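Is this the right way to post structure tokens for a design question? Let me know if I should format differently. Anyway, here goes:
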């Protein structure tokens, strides 16, 4: 059943979508609500949305910031396409008020949980892809994340995320961050995936064309999500 609210209408208008669109409704349907009402959740849409958002930001970097080298561009993208940033933008769009949550999830504060909001943002971009096409979805993602990208480009190495994370962990008595890096791909075009852990708990995962970029990107994700740890 589709329940129309002012929050839903405002969000749909901002994205250029029909508020009764099945894709739009599904993008805002958390698994807790889906379980209670025998509906499909937004989980599969997140997969597509994540790919579109990454493509949109990579495209914007190449088109609008030709002076950035590959490593700096990758780091700037990691400062935009991560849970804290996407959650912050989702909140500014009014996603918490529009989310379809199960009773227990809503009572426990799920509407403001960063992971839930970031997932919903990606699902909404996927809904735009389904209803309006790839070109429109990329344009919407770029528009919504333009300011975040501009800030990231201004200071892609801002205060060295690895040093920031190390200091935060030490001051809080959490133990030093440790990194695991795995390389893949051919020797002439490798890709590295870095995982940063604190006290044995994974705090961030990122990829890059060098170990340094991958580790810095993972540290940045961990640093920006530190308040939710």
């Amino acid at each position: 059943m589709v329940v129309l609210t002012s929050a839903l209408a405002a969000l749909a208008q901002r994205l250029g979508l029909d508020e009764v669109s099945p894709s739009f409704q599904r993008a805002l349907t958390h698994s807790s609500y889906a379980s209670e009402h025998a509906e499909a959740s937004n989980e599969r849409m997140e997969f597509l949305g994540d790919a579109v958002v990454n493509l949109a930001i990579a495209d914007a970097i190449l088109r609008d910031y030709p002076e950035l080298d590959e490593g700096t561009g990758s780091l700037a993208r990691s400062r935009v396409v991560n849970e804290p940033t996407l959650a912050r933008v989702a909140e500014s769009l009014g996603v918490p008020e529009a989310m379809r949550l199960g009773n227990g999830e809503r009572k426990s504060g799920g509407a403001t949980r960063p992971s839930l909001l970031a997932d919903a943002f990606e699902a909404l971009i996927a809904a735009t892809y389904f209803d309006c096409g790839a070109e429109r979805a990329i344009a919407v993602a770029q528009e919504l994340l333009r300011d975040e990208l501009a800030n990231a480009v201004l200071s892609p190495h801002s205060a060295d995320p690895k040093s920031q994370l190390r200091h935060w962990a030490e001051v809080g008595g959490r133990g030093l961050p440790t990194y695991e890096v795995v390389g893949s791909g051919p020797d002439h075009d490798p890709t590295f995936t870095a995982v940063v852990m604190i006290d044995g708990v994974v705090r961030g995962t990122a990829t890059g064309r060098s170990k340094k970029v991958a580790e810095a990107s993972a540290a940045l994700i961990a640093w920006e999500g530190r308040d939710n740890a």
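Format looks fine. Someone answered above. Worth noting: Residues 161-228 form a domain with the Double Stranded RNA Binding Domain fold (CATH 3.30.160.20). The beta strands are 178-184, 191-198, 201-208.
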